[in-house]
Every structure is written in C-alpha cells, then in structure tokens.
C-alpha cells in the first residue's frame, strides 16, 4: 500500500475485493482501524465505507482503497494481511512480526479480524 508497509496476500486481496463489490459503491474503500490491545498486541475493526473521514488517509494498492487513520498506519507497518477460512470462522488475519504474544502462544502472534460494521 504505497507508503504503508503492509503485505496483502492473494486471499486477503480477493476477500477485500469481494466485500467492496457487494457492499460498496464505485469510490468505496475499506476503513481499517487498529489500536493497541488483544493477544497479538493489536485489536482492530474494518468496514466498507463510501469515503474517508477527515482524519483518515487513502492508501491504494492494486486498485483497492483503504481508509486508515494515523495511529492505525503506524501500528500496521510491517504487518501481513491474510484471509483465513476454517470450519468455524472466516475473516482477515493480521500477522505482526513486531508483536509479542500476551496469550501464552509460542508461535508468531496474529490478529483475527472479522467484519465489524459501524
């Protein structure tokens, strides 16, 4: 994402495109809001919206638009966004190599992110 150092896997790209196609208009984007907290060190929400707020910047990659506030932009640096589907859940998952797990896991921490509409 231009000046935002986030890697988007093909599965996440496909999921975001599908969300924007079904829930958005021609200029819609994915609002991504991240804050400190949670097992991975981050908690987050996302929603398809028509336009960014005054405090958000637009980041585009491969034709996808993301609306991200300044705090989220800092927290997302170096993170990989993936889409994971299991028999019991489906959603975006963020892998943050900088985060230290606070939930007793010895593997690399990640953030499960499910669609939270405002």
TrEMBL record:
* Domain named Core: residues: 5-104
Looking at the record's lineage, which domain of life comes first?
Answer: Bacteria
Q: Name one GO biological process term.
A: iron-sulfur cluster assembly
Q: Single GO molecular-function term?
A: 2 iron, 2 sulfur cluster binding
GO cellular component entries: cytosol
- What is stated as this protein's family in its record? Belongs to the HesB/IscA family.
The protein depicted here goes by the name: Iron-sulfur cluster assembly accessory protein
**Species annotation:** Beijerinckia indica subsp. indica (strain ATCC 9039 / DSM 1715 / NCIMB 8712)
Q: What is the lineage of its organism?
A: Bacteria, Pseudomonadati, Pseudomonadota, Alphaproteobacteria, Hyphomicrobiales
């Amino acid at each position: 994402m231009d000046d935002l150092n986030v890697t988007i896997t093909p599965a996440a790209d496909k999921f975001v495109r599908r969300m924007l196609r079904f829930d958005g208009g021609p200029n819609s984007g994915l609002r991504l809001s991240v804050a400190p907290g949670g097992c991975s060190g981050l908690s987050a929400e996302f929603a398809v919206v028509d336009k960014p707020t005054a405090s958000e910047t637009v980041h585009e990659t491969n034709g996808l638009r993301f609306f991200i506030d300044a705090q989220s932009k800092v927290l997302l640096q170096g993170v990989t966004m993936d889409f994971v589907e299991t028999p019991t859940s489906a959603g975006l998952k963020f892998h943050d190599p900088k985060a230290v797990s606070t939930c007793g896991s010895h593997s690399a921490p990640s953030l499960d992110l499910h669609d939270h509409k405002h």
